[in-house]
Write a structure and sequence with these properties.
Elements (H helix, E strand, L loop, with lengths): L8 E6 L8 H15 L3 E8 L3 E5 L2 E7 L15 H11 L3 E5 L6 H9 L3 E5 L3 H7 L4 H18 L2 E4 L2 H8 L6 E3 L16 H8 L4 E6 L9 H12 L4 E6 L5 H10 L4 E5 L4 H10 L2 E4 L8 H8 L4 E4 L4 H5 L3 E4 L3 H12 L3 H12 L4 H11 L14
Parallel strand pairs: 1-2, 1-5, 2-4, 5-6, 6-7, 7-8, 9-10, 9-12, 10-11, 12-13, 13-14
Antiparallel strand pairs: 3-4
Helix pairs in contact: 1-15, 4-5, 8-13, 11-14
Length: 387
């Protein structure tokens, strides 16, 4: 294994991403760019329809053929251990970084045998995901504790993005947990992108523009946004909703909006990051209803664009958004009340507060914290602080 002062090969494994993935793909891209800038050699390995190997501005990206997970809306997984194990042995990583809490957990044992320091990144809580998929809270907690104890034992470190995400590892006595926040592109996401013309085009004669930027899958609870809109309109607030995202729940959500005659525009996945930032800046309020979110990148992007956020009180987002938004219990009525509270604040003040909060989360700090978790030097001079 190479010494700490040399250019290190950081192999990063990720599952459950698609071409239309949001937060995880963004984090993988930004961290890859940061590792390169810091003088290291990141290699990202992800599943896809066919094998590919390319060098990009975010490092080397290798795609291995992986099957689509049934009922997931297009997520693929690195299912075969043999090909991935062979690739790892060929790449000879100095560090291993795994963004998958379940199907890739075996790579921690491989890393221990190969004497490669390895970190697992907790992009979601195990008990939170199990609960959103219908497992009773007590059973979900017990299953998560068993899973997390094994993961903490297997990996050199567990990286969590918030204190909220740390809790499930600390309660099983894990002592190798470090915190490294994610970040936001403060140059692309700016309040001055706000367009009154774009806002009016989505309002269609209404007065308040709500935005949901989310994968439309069960763990994200996108139906809460429709419940919020219905509650607001019942209370006399002339609100409209724009949904930027796709996923397996989209057909049902569209049918529900039509049946309730709700003014909802489903845009699908917005690939153009500039167009998405324009949309985030144009909205009045962004909704983040996912109860198992451990950070919430799209919510942070909205803040950077000057748009306050209403987030699930069950998630980590209240920790991220602070006073620049509002936390609500997991009902449409509670979310509607939080929206009305934010709308009651002076518009210029609430937008300035949102931007000010987001400025605490630049990607430079995130990269520095992840490198510190790997115990790697920042040879490129990326500024930041240890988690």
């Amino acid at each position: 294994m190479s010494g700490g002062g040399e250019r290190m090969v950081i192999v990063r494994l990720a599952n459950f991403i698609t071409p239309s993935s949001g937060g995880l793909r963004t984090a993988l891209d930004e961290l890859g760019r940061g590792y390169l800038a810091a003088g290291h050699r990141p290699v990202l390995v992800v599943p896809g329809a066919r094998r590919s190997d390319e060098h990009t501005e975010r490092g080397r990206v290798i795609t291995l053929p992986g099957p689509v997970l049934p009922g997931s809306g297009g997520y693929r997984v690195l299912a075969g251990r043999g090909p991935l194990r062979h690739l790892l042995e060929t790449l000879r990583p100095d560090r291993l970084e795994v963004s998958d809490r379940t199907t890739l957990r075996w790579t921690g044992a491989w890393a221990r045998r190969a004497r490669v320091p390895a970190v697992m990144v907790s992009h979601e809580t195990a008990d939170g995901v199990l609960r959103t998929w219908g497992l009773p809270a007590v059973a979900a907690g017990r299953a998560a504790d068993r899973l997390n104890a094994r993961s903490a034992h297997t990996y050199t470190r567990i990286v969590c993005t918030t204190r909220w995400a740390e809790r499930e590892f600390l309660r099983v006595g894990a002592r190798n947990v470090v915190r490294a926040p994610l970040g936001v592109d403060l140059r692309r996401c700016r309040p001055d992108r706000r367009s009154t013309a774009l806002r009016a085009g989505h309002l269609h004669g209404q007065e308040v523009l709500l935005l949901l930027c989310s994968r439309l899958s069960v763990e994200k609870r996108p139906g809460r946004a429709l419940e919020t809109l219905a509650a607001l309109r019942h209370q006399g607030v002339r609100a409209a909703l724009v949904v930027a995202g796709d996923g397996p729940l989209r057909p049902g959500l569209e049918a529900r909006a039509r049946a309730q005659r709700l003014p909802v525009a489903f845009l699908g996945h917005v690939r153009d990051r500039e167009a998405l930032a324009d949309l985030q800046a144009a909205a009045d309020i962004c909704l983040a209803p996912g109860p198992a979110e451990t950070f919430g990148l799209s919510a942070l992007e909205a803040l950077a664009c000057g748009t306050p956020v209403v987030a699930s009180a069950s998630s980590a987002l209240p920790e991220v958004i602070g006073g620049a938004g509002a936390a609500a219990e997991d009902t449409g009525e509670a979310f509607a009340a939080a929206v009305r509270e934010l709308l009651g604040r002076p518009p210029d003040r609430r937008r300035a507060d949102a931007r000010q909060r987001a400025e605490l989360f630049g990607w430079d700090r995130s990269v520095a914290a992840f490198l510190a978790a790997h115990e790697l030097p920042d040879r490129g001079g990326v500024p930041g602080v240890r988690a």
